[in-house]
Specification:
By secondary structure, the chain is of the alpha+beta class. The protein contains 23 helices and 21 strands. Helix content is 47%, strand content 13%. The radius of gyration is 28 Å and the shape is globular. This is Glutamine synthetase III. InterPro entries: Gln-synt_C, Gln_synt_N, Gln_synth/guanido_kin_cat_dom, Gln_synth_cat_dom, Gln_synth_gly_rich_site, GS_Type-3, GSIII_N.
Length: 725
């Protein structure tokens, strides 16, 4: 089959594809299935002895230490519930530093001597498991021969039953630690940082008259962007299969310039996928709320409701797994890479952050008159201080080879970490800096000019999509995380830097009150100091402008453009002191994450470099040479016949073929030299030499795509992948 026929067959299969019917039980209501497969608080209340239930609930809601004596009762009830749900196995699910989900399955059934078996699941088994610790990234925390690692039950995140046509599994969210107690996962530091932040947030609340405040937690609402590509096209692209992004591909005649895809009508096939996915998410207790088309063709978004940060990060991992499996059921592949297609919108995972408790709600709600809301202003000022002091750490929390392709590009914030407050709050803090806030800009009214339509309330400030850390009315939105990344990493940093800032605020206020200073005066002094010392991080302008990097440098803000620039922030003296002080990471754990970051960067670039060489040598170059040969044969035949031949097309093809060959030689040489280095030097060489060589090869190949005869070009094009669904 010729190259063109392969693509034509894929297109034909796409056109004739019939989405699978989505089976709903008769009379089924969405509310009935929500959490149906979750061992939730309500399920525990029905199945656990009253004393056991109260003990577990206290741990979940008030973070009291878990009583180990309750484990057997919980394990027995969990096992019976799971068996009723059709589960045959259980799995301790954890989140290693690969960024993916890991699990080890064990059967409930234990054989007995008479040829039968009985189902068993003890409290000891629930609480602790033992997977191999040496085969996951550990950054030097474990040697290859030191294989022992432990999983530990996280009662804060509910167990659930994961359905599969071949059998159901009880999944138990756990932490994953080494034999020495060091974190080998993303969940453990989330729990540690949450605990640290809560201590100091509650100190601040006590100063504002809340004598015994409810336990404060951080909340996270991550928006997930993604692309969908038909499976036929995906399987014909070795780069998508192995790297998750296209290493080649000419810009299509039509991209996203018309903005006709954004919020447009959702294609029927995609809507079927979304409905099927949401049903599975609902059963797992994942509060999917919003779905819509995103800016780029073939790009979409889902946004959940806010949850506790720990549970939200678990659910994000589960959401990505669910999307992948359901997409394949619908004949599509779900792409989470931050930049799977060059020249169009990249995909992020915007982390909406807040903190609060069940008694007070969110502590980042300004109210109608934020200038009078001193408690809000202190918590907001803590955010300003933390982001200014530790912007480099925030940048490092979203650093990856894949996210480097997105930051600063279409619809993504720049690598410079700044805060957008909006007109109202910016004005309030400006007043504070000048001596005291006495007014707040009021909400306005939008008059539409149509008699049948009511006037609409207008917020006192606009939104800013170019800001990496923006206040959006009752929360802050960290827009820099990439769609492929876990939200745990940025949440760990946010929680920890907020712990430091709230510790600072509480200490200043406690000292002032103890010295006899009026509390309101102490608050005013604290706010004035923070905005004077850290106001440089506030920027309400256009983060895409050419002037902003220059201004940011004058303000003293870091511009860590790449992962190689950002990773050293993890092992700075300031970072090690911060994370050690609040018992989130030890110095060894910080160095391990730095080493893993470098390793993951090099592995990603290495795979992409090898793929570039393979695809260019075995697909692109042969296609171009065949076409060049056809043209040369035609020129020779015309010349032999005495006809003057037009050689312009032949020359046009020959030039990029030469550039392609030169690029291949440069990349081969760069890859060979790469292995003579190590650590950050190797990563810097990859950034400065391997990636540019790959880019030159791509430029030549993409030029050839626009010249080579279509019947000789085998790679599915952007035009096909982005628009045929």
């Amino acid at each position: 089959m010729s190259a063109n026929k392969v693509r034509q067959q894929a297109i034909s299969d796409v056109e004739s594809y019939v989405p699978p019917a989505i089976s709903f039980d008769p009379g089924e209501e969405p509310g009935e299935i929500f959490g149906a497969n979750v061992f939730s608080v309500s399920v525990m209340q029905k199945r656990l002895p009253k004393s056991v239930y109260k003990s577990v609930l206290a741990t979940i809601e008030k973070s009291t230490p878990l009583d180990p004596d309750v484990a057997d009762a919980v394990a027995s009830a969990m096992k019976d519930w799971a068996l009723e749900k059709g589960a045959t196995h259980y799995a301790h699910v954890f989140y290693p530093l690969t960024g993916l989900t890991a699990e080890k399955h064990d059967s409930f059934l234990d054989p007995v001597g008479d040829g039968t078996a009985f189902a068993s699941f003890s409290g000891k088994t629930l609480v602790q498991g033992e997977p191999d610790a040496s085969s996951f990234p550990n950054g030097g925390l474990r040697n290859t021969f030191e294989a022992r690692g432990y999983t530990g039950w996280d009662v804060m995140s509910p167990a659930y039953v994961l359905e599969n046509p071949n059998g159901n599994t009880l999944c138990i969210p756990t932490v994953f630690i080494s034999m020495t107690g060091e974190a080998l996962d993303h969940k453990t530091p989330v729990l540690r940082s949450q605990q640290a932040m809560a201590v100091h947030a509650e100190r601040v609340l006590k100063l504002f008259g809340h004598a015994d405040p409810e336990h404060v937690v951080s909340y996270c609402g991550p928006e997930q962007e993604y692309f969908l590509v038909d499976s036929h096209f995906f399987l014909a692209r070795p780069d998508l299969i192995n790297a998750g992004r296209t290493l080649f591909g000419a810009k299509p005649p039509k991209g996203q310039e018309f903005d006709d895809h954004y919020f447009g009508a959702i294609p029927e096939r995609v809507l079927g996928f979304m409905m099927d996915t949401e049903r599975e998410l609902f059963k797992l207790g994942i509060p999917a709320k919003t779905r819509h088309n995103e800016v780029a063709p073939g790009q979409f978004e889902i946004a959940p409701m806010f949850e506790r940060a720990n549970e939200a990060s678990d659910h994000q991992q589960l959401l990505m797994t669910t999307f992948k499996s359901v997409a394949r059921k619908h004949g599509m592949e779900c792409l989470f890479h931050e930049k799977p297609f060059a020249g169009v919108n990249g995909s992020g995972k915007h982390v909406n952050f807040s903190l609060g408790n069940s008694e007070l709600g969110s502590l980042l709600v300004p109210g109608d008159n934020p200038h009078d809301n001193a408690q809000f202003l202190v918590f907001c000022a803590a955010v300003i201080r933390s982001v200014h002091k530790y912007g480099g750490l925030l940048r490092s929390s979203v650093a990856s080879a894949s996210n480097d392709h997105r930051l600063g590009a279409n619809e993504a914030p720049p690598a410079i970490i700044s805060i957008f407050l909006g007109d109202q709050l910016a004005d309030v803090f400006d007043q504070i800096a000048k001596g005291g806030a006495t007014r707040s800009k009021e909400k306005g009214t939008l008059t539409i000019g149509v008699d049948t339509l009511p006037n609409l309330t207008k917020d006192p400030g606009d939104r800013n999509r170019t800001s990496p850390f923006a206040f959006t009315g009752n929360r802050f939105e960290f827009r820099a995380p990439g769609s492929l990344q876990t939200v745990a990493a940025p949440m760990v940093v946010i929680n920890t830097i907020m712990a430091e800032a709230l510790d600072y605020c509480a200490t200043i206020l406690e000292t002032a009150v103890a010295d006899g200073t009026d509390f309101n005066e102490a608050v005013q002094s604290l706010l004035t100091t923070i905005i004077s010392d850290h106001g440089a991080v506030i920027f309400n302008g256009n983060g895409y402008s050419e002037e902003w990097p220059i201004e940011a440098e004058q303000r003293g803000l870091k511009n860590l453009r790449t992962t190689v620039d950002a990773l050293p922030e993890l092992i700075s003296d300031e970072a090690i002191e911060l994370f050690s002080k609040y018992a989130v990471f030890s110095e060894r754990e910080m160095h391990s994450r730095y080493e893993i970051g470098i390793e993951q960067y090099l592995l990603t670039v290495g795979v992409e470099a090898n793929l570039t060489l393979e695809i260019a040598n075995t697909i692109v170059l042969p296609s171009a040479i065949r076409y060049q040969t056809e043209l040369a044969t035609n020129v020779a035949a015309l010349t032999a016949a005495g006809v003057e031949a037009d050689v312009s097309t032949l020359r046009a093809v020959t030039a990029p073929i030469g550039a392609l060959k030169a690029g291949l030689a440069d990349l081969t040489s760069a890859v060979d030299k790469l292995h003579d280095l190590s650590g950050i030097e190797e990563a810097a060489f990859a950034r400065d030499n391997v990636l540019p060589a790959m880019a030159s090869i791509r430029a030549a190949a993409d030029e050839l795509e626009g010249l080579v005869a279509d019947d000789l070009w085998s790679l599915p094009t952007y035009q096909e992948m982005l628009y045929i669904l």
